[in-house]
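Structure ticket #2291
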Amino acid sequence: MSTQPATGLETFPNPAPERDYTIRMSMPEFTCLCPRTGQPDFATLELEYVADQLCVELKSLKLYIWSFRDRGAFHEAVTNEILAKLAGAVRPRFIRLTARFNVRGGITTTIVAEHRHPQWQAPAPVALP
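Resolution: structure written out below.
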């Protein structure tokens, strides 16, 4: 059992690389520190991606997210850093990270960052009766 955060991400082969399907994860316990005050900032991270050849392993993702707990970071910077790390490790067809930070000083912040493979086209939406 890991008792320390980690900065690496592990992956495993996508079990269905021939198909576009969406993987969604919610991480309601994200914490980092305000770089100005040192006080904790709390957020819910919503991750969704269309895998290509690799998927992110959940325990390594949990330990990676934990590594921000004692780090000062602006909301915009930390959201884009996490997205870049995930996109680099998994090399997905599409990935979106939404970071919904709890209210601080009467302001709630939501950051949405995306990355898509240049050759990937999203399938047309299906309208069911």
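Closing remark: Strands lie at 11-13, 22-33, 40-50, 54-56, 94-104, 107-116.
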